[in-house]
Model the fold of this input.
Amino acid sequence: MRFRLLLHQLAIVFLAAACSSRPQAVAQQPVSDSAISFQRIFHAPFSGIEQRRRVVIRSATELKTFWIEVAGPRMPPPELPLVDFSESLVIAVAMGRRGTGGHDIRVDQVYRAGERIVVVVREISPGPSCMVTMGLTAPIDIVRIPRSEDPVTFAENAETQECG
Done:
């Protein structure tokens, strides 16, 4: 079973690498805003998150609860990332369940806009000419940023890959 899962993940990686991207909508960062550094702590084409979600996690308890959902039926579950919530908070973006491979989601940028934090998210879908694996995926990306009590909003980008 693990071998099959590994082959499935490798196929997705190779198919994604073979495709070029064409942006459909782009959220731009205004010049006056300041970038916030972030660290990717988990990224996977498969998760237990079946619906599209954007989550801000401000405590270890919230992360543990969310992580149970992320792991889903995966055995063994992925290791819970270590986060010092006195210094950081966690942003998770999930694409939800998709019927094929070739999908991905990424946090591309985080920046401050006045009294709020903006997280720029890019959802990538395969174009009609792309060869994809026939299997369920549920892409997720999780990042850590410096702690803030400011509200977090999400700027969404959608991209379709064109395959030759």
Q: What stands out?
A: Residues 2-162 form one domain. The chain has one domain: 2-162. The two ends are 32 Å apart (CA to CA). DSSP finds two helices and nine strands in the chain.
